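Entry 14. Structure prediction run on the chain below.
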Amino acid sequence: MEKLLIELDIPVRYVKGVGPKKACILKKLGINTVCDLLQYYPRAYQDRTSTTPIFRLISGERQTVKGHVIGYKENYFPRKGVRLQKVIISDGLGKASLLFFNQPRISRLLPKGSELFVTGRIRRFRREIQIYDFDFEVVNKRMKIHTNRIVPIYPVTCDLQRVGQRMLRGIMKEALEQYIPVLRDPLPNSILLRYALCDLSFAIQNIHFPLDKPSFKKARDRLAFDELFLLQLGIGLTKKDRRKQKGIAYRIDGNLVPRFLSSLPFSLTRAQMRVIDEIKQDMKSSYPMNRLIHGDVGSGKTIVAICACLISVENGYQVAFMAPTEVLASQHFLALKDLLSKLPVKIGLLISDLKKKEREEILTQIERGEISIVIGTHALIQEGVTFRRLGVCIIDEQHKFGVMQRGALIEKAKGLSGGVPDILVMTATPIPRTLALTIYGDLDVSCLDELPPGRKKVLTFCRQEEDLPKIYEFLKSEIRSGRQAYIVYPAIEGHEELDLKAAEEMVRKLQKGIFKDYKLALLHGRMKTWERDEIMKSFRKKEIDILVSTTVIEVGIDLPNATVMLIEDAHRFGLAQLHQLRGRVGRGDYRSYCILVTKKGISDLVNSKLITEEDTNRKAIKRLQAIVSTADGFQIADRDLQIRGPGELFGVKQHGRLRLSVADIIKDVKLLEHARREAFSILEEDPHLDKNQGLKKTFDYYFVGRLELAAIS
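Output returned:
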């Protein structure tokens, strides 16, 4: 009887040659069932298809030979208590010794005349050709799995060295022979034919033991398609569920938005006008808005978000505006107060660093509905915060919130407004198309792909620590010209084990030393809100020449007079962080600069464009090369995706590789598009997968219970 792969939930101990002891070892690798085993894919492959004559073997190389056993030798080393057994093989043109230790019965395993394939490391020692660290296989009619073929290398953790590659290959071979003949394919034949995909049995057989390179590619493409297809099914089902929810149908013909736009001292870009129209259409409809706005630094997301706020307020609803840090929340509060000062809209700030009386007063006003727009951090989702009629949730820099935190904000709104609230998510990190299709496929995505006219490009340089005296002199010249500067450090205070410069220590050293004639101030996330506000007010008034800070200024700071961003220990920062920090300058009419300071060896490689697999700071060098070479946030997002990985889709993880064993959303763009098209097409005809029971069972196995998390994202 044919079975789906997921139906092979047979305990792995029943695979021939496993048993209870080996099953316990496999369990540590996450292998409990035959299904788990068949999906435990190799991490790499070695091509052992070509053999080399023994006399041509090269010392230090890993090579494959074919020969037959002609004799044995043994050496005993009494000081070490070690016996070295040598099995002598010949191919008729030369001889070589296979080195075994403490295996006195090796002659029984490999009797004279046995024909072998051997793949191992070669060395020439005292006119003798020796092979060590090898795999061998006796030539017979059975399928070769260790040599003379493309050989799989499986992931094995250091503490499980007992799980040797030979053992895993042997177990995998037995499992394939037992269960591949009964495997049922869940994908419809029409899809397989349309994209020339191989069947599942061929794919699993050839992902483990490829017949050749074309067979491996066919297998990989099929399994990658399956992974992407299931993800797109999940996204499609989530989107359909959302469309069934009852939302709030807002009137969009009020006068607050026109009054706000006419009060601005600048004209909106075409991209901003387009996205505002998209938001209006969403809010006008009867289903909940779920829209993501992304764009480069300075593309005007806040102005667009304010328009959504005003539509909500004019319809009698409140807005919750959640930012990841108190600094950013405070910046939004001050910006909105200034921008909406001429409109009848009351704005409140709710952060943890408030006095008890002040907090209680704000909470009361929120509950009564007296505050229309509430800006805050995670304090918005804490107990005691009750909205009267919450209609719109705006989440800024959403990647900095955990999935569960975002969900908690949405839960607060349910039942308060007569429908599910509208969700507007903003991020200043542009999202590559492939990632948007995959992660945000269930959201409507708006892209602000146009910067306001007149924005000057920020010149970016990577320098070494030895250049700091010259850099400091350059900062002085900018300040003498009436400009201001930022100096950013990766840590607030020093740490014995980490070789990091700290902001607290450096601001004292710089103020007493090279910048003694200038005014410096320190800003970091542990300061009280009023302290930070006072410092930012002073910086705006040009009473501070240099603001020394941590990444707390990464987003939300808009000071046109600041022209230099100096980032020390730049190799310690993420690529998106570097791009955001650079975006704090270049906001006025003056030429601006971003200077990345790092260790000499790293800066040399960044500027020379050289990088090798062996470089210990390889990822850091790639990040710095990317930030120096382009100011385009979309290109940077692509590079960041390649370097860092996009995070888990249907779960709470925010960083690291996707839970994709085979597919790569960067390389498999075409497969992703095909998978999306087919998944959404099937859901149009069969929204509950009733006609595709194999797909339904497979999908449920992987994703039931996780779609709710995906819906929050």
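Confidence is low (pLDDT under 50) at residues 648-658, 708-713.
Filed with the rest of this week's runs.
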